[in-house]
Amino acid sequence: MLQLAGGCPACGLDYGRFNVGDGAAAGVILLVGIIVMPLALVVDFRLAPPWWVHALLWGPLVTGLSLALLRLSKGLLVALEFRHDAGEVSRMPPPDAPNSEQP
Question: Is 0.90 surpassed by the pTM of this model?
Answer without folding.
Answer: no
